[in-house]
Structures are given as C-alpha cells and as structure tokens.
Amino acid sequence: MATRATVGLRLKDHDHHHCISDAIARAEMLCQRNGARLTENRRRVLELVWQSHAPVGAYEVLEMLRKDGIRAAPPTVYRALEFLLEHGLVHRIETRNAFVGCPQPGQAHAAQYLLCDGCGDAVEIEIGGLARRIETRAAELGFAVATQTIEARGLCSRCQQSAPAGA
Ligand SMILES: [Zn+2]
Ligand SMILES: [Zn+2]
Ligand SMILES: [Zn+2]
User: Fold this and answer.
1) Which ligand is nearest to the CA of 93?
2) Residue 94 DSSP one-character state
3) Within-domain flag for 90
C-alpha cells in the first residue's frame, strides 16, 4: 500500500513495477470491499493506465490492447474506464482528456494535479481544505459546485534538470 507520504514524490526515480502491482492489489481490495468485480478486462485496462505516471487517453488504451493482441471494441474500454472512475481507481485529467491511476483510492478526496509539460507525468496532490474553501466561497456567491478540476502545468524536477541551461 502506498501511504499518503508517497503521494507527490512519484516523479522521482523509482521502481515503477511496484506502482503497478500496488495499484492492482489496492484495486482488488477495494472492489472486494465494494462488492464489485474487477474483471479481467477492467484489471487489464487499469494496468495499462498505470503503465506510467502520464495520463493516457481511451484511444491509447485501445491501441495498447491491440498491440497485446486483444481485440477490444471501444465501448468495452470506455465501460472499463467508467467503472474505474466510478470506484475512484483512476481520475480524469480534464485538460488532457485522459486518465491517470489514483494512488489512494478508497478514500474520498478532491485531488489537484501537477502536470509536467516535459515528460507528461501527472502527480496527484491534495491540498488540505482547498476543495472545501472553493465550495464555501462558491456557496457565498450562490453557486453550487458540481466538480472541481485543479490542474497546474509546468516542469517536474527531473525535466527542469534536463532542460538546456538558459532555456
Ligand atoms: Zn511509478
Ligand atoms: Zn486520487
Ligand atoms: Zn517531467
């Protein structure tokens, strides 16, 4: 299990196989708890979303499946992604129309994202109380918030180091 402390440190060099196996283990536990079925197809799609920390689009997932010799119809992939979204196993990165695995599913949270323009990685962070403050301020204005999307773009530490000096 990834602990809260590892969230936000994921862009550093690490053994990504652990990220994938942890994600699958968490998904199995969560589905069992929710009485939901992590079918072979759903599990495979989750694995593909977790291939990296960069968000992937539904079409890319479809392409990866095809490369594995699995002939999946687009609706199958969309339905699997919907299931994963519904159970909080993946999040949707709105500005990229893509999906990324959640490192802490099973806990209600409103996440914010750091999106790297260099390598494409997305890091989920959770600023305590931020979502609530937005809701409170919105309510003062008589606005009912349905969803919040907070995505910050920039360069991760690794990409800053590899950027040419003076650039
Ligand atoms: Zn990783
Ligand atoms: Zn999350
Ligand atoms: Zn980067």
Assistant:
1) 2
2) G
3) yes
Cα 87 from Cα 9, distance rounded (Å): 24
pTM over 0.85? The answer is: no
Which ligand lies nearest to the CA atom of residue 110 in the structure? Answer: 2
Distance between CA atoms of residues 121 and 54, nearest Å: 4
Local confidence pLDDT in tens for the 167 residues of the chain: 333 334 444 445 789 999 999 999 999 999 999 999 999 999 999 999 999 999 999 999 999 999 988 888 899 999 999 999 999 999 999 999 999 999 999 887 888 999 999 999 999 998 889 999 999 999 999 999 988 889 999 999 999 998 766 55
CATH of residue 46: 1.10.10.10
Neighbours of ion ligand 2 (CB under 5 A): 102, 111
